[in-house]
Each structure stands twice: as structure tokens, then as C-alpha cells.
């Protein structure tokens, strides 16, 4: 890698040198050109040779310029290619460096693991060996003791044996080899133990970090749950207030319906009273007609009485008395009907007052209902905002729960890793125990060998041994040598097992390397994915900027539409104002008309009262005439009686006429008195007829007054209906005007808010998009600069890999 980097640097320096040379040549050519021009100016010769030389120099200069441009282009192309090669080489170097670092980290991790396991084994070995004296020291002391003994007897030639020398040398070599191997294994076990302890500390630290993060996540979850409960309480309060408002609204609607039902009932009662009044008027008219019929019947009876003087006077008197009673009953019924009519008019006025009160209460309830609807709409909007806040809190709570579950899973994974490591430690401890047992076996073998050596040394005497004993000793030594060979083979087997364990460790290291390479590849893919996402985000931001521009255009179009709608609303408001003015004028005219109708009604009431007073006067006069007629009837009866007596006396006088002239004179007087009585009767009948005519005139005047009263009442009712319609129209127009004004104000406020919010929001969005674009561009530039900053990136990757290893 360093050689390739050095080659690339050399190429770059050579290119820089070539570029400098080209620049120097260009500068020299320019200087020569300037010198030639100065020479031409100085000489001032215009010869053909100079022109040809000048042309040649210019051609050479143009060729040189072209060549320089071609060289510069080629140099730029070569420089770009070199840059590309350099970039690719740098990328390859960074990749190789990262791979080497990954391999290094994997090797270090495996090394630390092996060192920790070896350290565990060495610690256990040390603990096992501290309980007893080291075997190699014992062996060494025994061996030195044996060697001293051999040195003592070395002057004896019979005791010198090459077999003993070989045995001693072999024993010493075996002891030293075994000692070196045990030292190596002890060091390896110590290293493994240290690595395991470091890894255990790292795992404990990770566990503490995870517990701290879990505690933070639980605290955040509790805070979010408390906020959620608070928002739920607020939502329940809003729901209760909404239910209370709904109940109040329902009660107001129910009361409004009750008021409308009461108003309808009062209107029905008013109609019933009007119908009863009409019925009373009809009955009064019938009574008047019956009265007129009775009067006509009285007149007929009077005519019959005048025509038929032969009818008995008692019957006439009885009929006259019955007619008088009937007239009295009719008068009583008329008075009763008049009282009923007055009561009905009073009831009508009271009902109208109640209707007005109910109308006012209905308007009040309508206003309260509108206020309740506005409050309900406001509460619904508040409820919607609270639901949105609740959704946001639920989302954040879900995120916190997800983080908590993730941390819990990480904690469980770490616990599992810890358990696996504990099991691995237990297996290593078992292996250590096995090694200790094998070590004890080897120590027992060593002690046996030492005892045999002592026996061999102790069984020698001063005279020496026989050949048979020597052969026996040689055989024993050969058997011991075989045993030592076997122990050596066992040690070789142990070394082979250690080599196999080393191979397994190498395999594990290779697996860890592969795993780390895969993880780093996934990390690189993640970085690439982030880069693609950033590019995609840049494109999306550009699209959002275009969308914002489109939205700005749409907002301008909506503003134009709102301006047009506002102008239309203003025109409608002006039309409504004109209609309101017209309706106010019509209302004034109707009020004037109602005042005129009231005056006419007052006049008609006065005329009715006058007619009633005239009717009362006529009734009084009628009663007087009836009394006079009764008196006249009585006088007529008396005159008839006197007439009959006079006739009888006349007859008697006529009979006695011849008797005396005095009787003739008396009869003449009676005849004259009878004629006077007849004339009085005619006068009385004429006065009765005159009174009856006056009564008929009064009745016709009364009927006309009642007709006028009915017409005025109908006109008044029509005027009231028109007035109510006009009032409702004016109220409706006023409400429409108010609503239009409200809509105009709302539209203006909305336009202002839209302008402010749209401008601010667009500015903020544009600034945010520009910032995000700048950030993405900076990120892209940073990513492009990352290739040039290999060392810095390498350190970052080292830190990231260390963090990943800590997390793993």
C-alpha cells in the first residue's frame, strides 16, 4: 500500500514538474515574442525577409500556442485520470486499511479472549501450585542431589556408565522442556485470564450503561404516561363539559319546543275565542232577529186587536205580557253576550301579550342556543386539538416503549452472553482441573523416577555391581526410558491438543474476522444507503420547493378568488342594505297605516259606543213607548169598555129616545167621547209605529257600526300580519346583513392570516429548504472530502469499530 501511494505521489510530482516546465516554456516563448516585436519596432525595416521571419515566428508562435494548448489539454486529461486513479487508489487503500483494521481488531479481540482464558487457567494453576511446593524445584533439588552423588563416585571407574549419563541428560532435558512448556502455558493462561477479566469489565460496563438507559427510558415512559393520563383527564373533562352543554342545549331546545307548543296552544285558544266571539255575534244577531220578529208579531197582534175589537182583551194582555218577558230575556241575553264579548276581547289582548312575551323568550332562547352552539363548536375544536396532542403523546409513548423493549432485549442479549461466557469459564475451569490432575500424575511419575534414581544410587556399593545387576539395572533403566518416552508422547499429545485448540482459536478468529467484515460491509452499505437517502432527500427538497412555489401560486389564485368573493359579498351587503332601507320604509308606511287603522278603529269604537248609547236610549224609549202602549192599551180597553157601556147606554137611550130629549143629548155626548177615544187610539198607534221605525233605524245603524268594526278588525289583523311579516323580513335581512358582515370580517381576517401565515410559512419553508439544501450540499462536499482525509476517516472508523465491538 505504501509503495502504491509513493508511486502515485511520484506520478503527481512528475506531472507537476511537467506542468511547471510547460509554464516555463510558455513564459520563454512569450518573452521571445516580445523581444522579436521590440526588435522589429527598433529596426523599423519592412523587408520581405523580416516579414517572412515575422510570419515564421508568428506561425511558430501559433504552433507553439496550439501545441501548448494541446499539451495543456493532455495534461488536464492526464491530471484528471491521475486524480481518478488517485481517488480509486485512495478508496482502495482506505478499504484495505479498514479491512486490515477490522482484521486487526478481530485478532486483538480473539487474542484478548484467549489471553483471558489463559489467564484464568494460569490463575487457577497458580492457586493450585501455591498449595504445594513446585515440582520442578523438587525435581531440581533431587536431580542436583543425584548428580552430587554421582560426582562423588565419579572417580570410580566401575561406576561410570553411559546409560546413566544418557538417563541423566534425558531427565534434565525433559525437566527443562516440561518446565518451559508449563511456563508458556502459565503465561498463556495468564493472558487469557487478563483478557477475560477485561471483557468481563467491559460487559459489566455495558450492562450498567444498558441499565442506565433502561432507567432513563422507563422514566421517560412514566413521564409520557403521566402526560397521557393528564391529557386523558382533560379529554374526559372536555367530554363531560360537552355532555353538559349537550344536555343544556337539549333542555333549551325542549324549552323552545315547549314555548312553541304553548304559543301554538295560545294561538288555537285565540282562534277558539274568535270563533266563540263570532258565534256570540251570530247568536246576538239571531236574538235581534227574534226580537224584530216578536215586535212584528206584536204589531200584528196590535193590528189584529185594532181590527178585531171582538177579541177578548185578556188574551191580548197575556200576549203583551209574554212579549214583554221575551223582550226582557232577550235584553238579558244581549247584555250577557256583550259581557262575553268584552271578556273575549280582554282575553284576546292577554293572549297577544303572552304571545309577545313568548316571542321574546323564544328569541332569547334562540340567542342562548346560538351561544351554546358556538361554545360547543369551540369545545369540539379544543377536543380535536387535544386528540391531536393525545395522538402525538401516544406516538411518543409508543416510541419510548419501543426503545424500552429494545433496551430490554439488549439487556437480555447481554445477560445471555454473560451466561454463555460463564459457561465457557466453567468449561475452562474443568479443563484446568483436568490439567491439574494430569500435572499431579506427572508429579507422581517424577517422584517415582526420583525414588528409582535414589534406589539405583543407594544400591551401589564400593566394590561395584556384577554384570547381571548392571543388566538388570540397564533393563530397569530401559523400562524407565520407555516410560519417559510414553510421558514424552503424552506431552506431545498435549501439545497436539494445544495446537488443535490454537487451530480452533484461529478458526474462531477467522469467523470473527468474517463476521466483522460482514458487519463492516453492512455498515458501508448503510453509509451508502444514507448517501442515497441524502441524495433522495435533496431531490425531495427540490420537489418540495417546487411544490411550495406551486402552493404560492395557488395561494395567489385563492387570494384573487377571495378578493372576488369579497367584492361579491360587498355587493350583496349593499343590496341587503338597500333592501333593508326599503323594508324600513315599508315598515314605516305600515306603521302609519296601522296608526290610521287604529284611529279608524277608535272612531269605529266611538261610533259603536254612540250606537250602543243610542240603542240604550232607543231601548229606554222603546220601554217608555211600550209602557205608553200598555197604558194606551189599558186606556183603549177602558175606552172600549166605556164605548161598550156607551153603546149599551146609547141603545138604551135610543130606546128611550122617544122618551126624552135629554137622553138624546147624553147619547150624543157619549158618541163624541167615543170618537175622541178612537182618535187617541190612532195617535197612539202612530207614535208606536214612529218608535218602531226609530228602533229599526237604530238597529240598522248598530249593524252598520258592527260591520265597520268587523272590517276594521280584519284590517287590523291583516295589518298586524303584514307588520309581523315585515318585522320577520327585516329581522331576517338584519341577520343576513350581520352574517354577511361577519363573513366579510372573517374573510378579511382569513385573507390577512393567510397572507401572513402563507408569507411566513413560505419564507420559513424556503429558508428551511435552503438550509436543508445547503446542509445536504455540505454533507455531499464532506463526503467528497472524506476521501481526501483518509487518516481522519480511519480514526473515526477505528472509534466506530471500537464502539461496535463494545456493543457486541
UniProtKB/TrEMBL annotation:
Q: Tell me yes or no: is DNA damage among this UniProt entry's keywords.
A: no
Q: Which InterPro entries match?
A: Myosin_tail
What are the alphabetically sorted keywords of the record?
Answer: Coiled coil, Cytoplasm, Motor protein, Muscle protein, Myosin, Thick filament
Q: Name one GO cellular component term.
A: bicellular tight junction
Q: Where is this region: Disordered?
A: 1-29, 269-290, 777-808
Location(s) in or outside the cell? Cytoplasm, Myofibril
Compositional bias of kind Basic and acidic residues:
7-29, 271-290, 782-808
Residues covered by the Myosin tail domain:
1-133, 179-807
Q: Known Pfam families for this protein?
A: Myosin_tail_1
Keyword Transit peptide among record annotations: no
Name by which UniProt lists this protein = Paramyosin
What is the source species? Schistocephalus solidus (Tapeworm)
Amino acid at each position: 500500500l505504501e509503495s502504491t501511494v509513493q508511486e502515485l505521489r511520484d506520478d503527481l510530482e512528475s506531472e507537476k514538474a511537467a506542468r511547471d516546465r510547460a509554464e516555463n516554456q510558455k513564459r520563454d516563448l512569450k518573452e521571445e515574442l516580445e523581444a522579436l516585436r521590440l526588435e522589429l519596432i527598433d529596426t523599423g525595416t519592412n523587408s520581405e525577409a523580416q516579414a517572412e521571419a515575422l510570419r515564421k515566428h508568428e506561425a511558430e508562435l501559433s504552433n507553439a500556442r496550439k501545441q501548448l494548448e494541446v499539451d495543456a489539454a493532455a495534461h488536464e486529461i492526464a491530471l484528471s485520470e491521475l486524480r481518478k486513479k488517485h481517488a480509486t487508489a485512495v478508496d482502495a487503500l482506505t478499504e484495505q486499511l479498514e479491512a486490515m483494521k477490522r482484521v486487526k481488531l478481530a485478532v486483538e479481540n480473539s487474542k484478548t479472549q484467549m489471553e483471558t482464558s489463559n489467564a484464568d487457567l494460569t490463575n487457577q494453576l497458580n492457586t493450585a501450585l501455591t498449595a504445594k511446593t513446585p515440582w520442578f524445584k523438587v525435581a531440581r533439588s533431587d536431580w542436583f542431589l543425584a548428580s552430587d552423588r554421582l560426582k562423588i563416585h565419579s572417580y570410580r571407574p566401575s561406576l561410570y556408565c553411559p546409560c546413566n549419563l544418557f538417563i541423566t541428560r534425558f531427565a534434565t532435558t525433559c525437566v527443562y522442556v516440561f518446565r518451559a512448556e508449563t511456563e508458556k502455558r502459565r503465561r498463556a493462561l495468564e493472558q487469557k485470564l487478563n483478557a477475560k477479566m477485561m471483557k468481563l469489565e467491559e460487559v459489566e460496563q455495558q450492562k450498567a450503561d444498558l441499565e442506565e438507559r433502561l432507567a432513563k427510558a422507563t422514566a421517560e415512559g412514566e413521564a409520557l404516561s403521566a402526560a397521557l393520563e393528564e391529557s386523558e383527564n382533560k379529554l374526559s373533562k372536555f367530554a363531560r363539559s360537552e355532555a353538559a352543554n349537550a344536555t343544556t342545549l337539549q333542555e333549551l331546545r325542549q324549552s323552545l319546543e315547549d314555548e312553541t307548543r304553548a304559543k301554538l296552544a295560545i294561538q288555537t285558544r285565540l282562534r277558539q275565542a274568535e270563533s266563540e266571539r263570532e258565534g256570540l255575534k251570530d247568536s246576538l244577531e239571531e236574538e235581534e232577529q227574534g226580537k224584530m220578529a216578536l215586535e212584528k208579531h206584536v204589531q200584528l197582534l196590535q193590528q189584529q186587536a185594532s181590527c178585531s175589537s171582538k177579541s177578548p182583551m185578556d188574551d191580548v194582555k197575556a200576549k203583551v205580557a209574554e212579549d214583554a218577558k221575551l223582550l226582557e230575556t232577550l235584553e238579558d241575553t244581549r247584555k250577557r253576550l256583550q259581557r262575553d264579548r268584552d271578556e273575549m276581547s280582554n282575553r284576546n289582548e292577554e293572549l297577544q301579550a303572552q304571545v309577545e312575551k313568548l316571542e321574546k323568550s323564544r328569541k332569547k332562547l334562540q340567542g342562548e342556543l346560538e351561544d351554546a352552539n358556538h361554545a360547543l363548536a369551540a369545545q369540539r375544536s379544543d377536543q380535536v386539538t387535544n386528540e391531536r396532542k393525545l395522538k402525538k403523546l401516544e406516538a411518543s409513548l409508543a416510541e419510548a416503549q419501543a426503545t424500552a423493549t429494545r433496551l430490554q432485549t439488549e439487556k437480555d442479549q447481554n445477560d445471555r452472553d454473560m451466561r454463555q461466557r460463564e459457561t465457557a469459564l466453567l468449561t475452562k475451569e474443568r479443563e484446568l482441573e483436568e490439567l491439574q490432575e494430569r500435572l499431579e500424575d506427572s508429579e507422581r511419575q517424577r517422584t517415582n523416577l526420583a525414588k528409582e534414581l535414589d534406589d539405583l544410587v543407594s544400591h551401589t556399593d564400593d566394590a561395584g555391581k556384577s554384570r547381571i545387576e548392571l543388566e538388570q539395572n540397564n533393563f530397569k533403566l530401559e523400562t524407565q526410558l520407555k516410560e519417559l518416552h510414553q510421558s514424552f508422547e503424552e506431552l506431545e499429545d498435549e501439545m497436539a491438543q494445544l495446537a488443535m485448540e490454537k487451530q480452533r482459536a484461529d478458526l474462531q478468529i477467522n469467523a470473527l474476522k468474517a463476521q466483522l467484515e460482514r458487519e463492516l460491509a453492512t455498515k458501508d452499505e448503510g453509509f451508502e444507503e444514507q448517501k442515497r437517502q441524502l441524495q433522495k432527500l435533496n431531490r425531495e427538497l427540490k420537489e418540495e420547493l417546487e411544490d411550495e412555489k406551486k402552493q404560492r401560486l395557488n395561494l395567489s389564485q385563492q387570494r384573487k378568488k377571495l378578493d372576488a368573493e369579497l367584492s361579491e359579498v360587498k355587493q350583496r351587503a349593499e343590496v341587503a342594505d338597500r333592501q333593508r332601507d326599503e323594508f324600513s320604509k315599508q315598515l314605516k308606511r305600515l306603521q302609519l297605516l296601522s296608526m290610521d287603522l287604529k284611529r279608524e278603529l277608535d272612531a269605529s269604537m266611538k261610533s259603536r259606543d254612540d250606537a250602543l248609547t243610542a240603542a240604550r236610549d232607543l231601548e229606554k224609549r222603546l220601554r217608555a213607548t211600550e209602557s205608553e202602549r200598555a197604558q194606551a192599551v189599558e186606556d183603549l180597553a177602558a175606552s172600549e169598555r166605556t164605548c161598550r157601556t156607551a153603546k149599551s147606554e146609547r141603545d138604551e137611550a135610543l130606546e128611550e129616545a122617544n122618551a126624552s130629549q135629554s137622553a138624546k143629548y147624553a147619547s150624543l155626548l157619549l158618541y163624541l167621547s167615543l170618537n175622541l177615544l178612537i182618535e187617541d187610539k190612532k195617535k197612539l198607534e202612530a207614535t208606536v209605529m214612529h218608535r218602531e221605525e226609530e228602533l229599526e233605524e237604530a238597529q240598522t245603524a248598530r249593524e252598520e257600526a258592527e260591520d265597520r268594526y268587523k272590517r276594521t278588525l280584519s284590517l287590523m289583523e291583516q295589518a298586524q300580519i303584514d307588520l309581523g311579516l315585515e318585522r320577520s323580513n327585516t329581522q331576517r335581512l338584519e341577520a343576513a346583513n350581520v352574517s354577511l358582515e361577519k363573513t366579510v370580517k372573517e374573510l378579511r381576517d382569513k385573507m390577512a392570516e393567510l397572507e401572513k401565515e402563507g408569507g411566513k410559512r413560505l419564507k420559513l419553508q424556503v429558508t428551511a429548504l435552503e438550509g436543508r439544501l445547503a446542509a445536504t450540499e455540505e454533507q455531499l462536499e464532506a463526503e467528497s472530502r472524506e476521501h481526501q482525509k483518509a487518516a481522519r476517516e480511519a480514526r473515526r472508523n477505528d472509534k466506530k469499530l471500537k464502539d461496535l465491538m463494545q456493543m457486541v
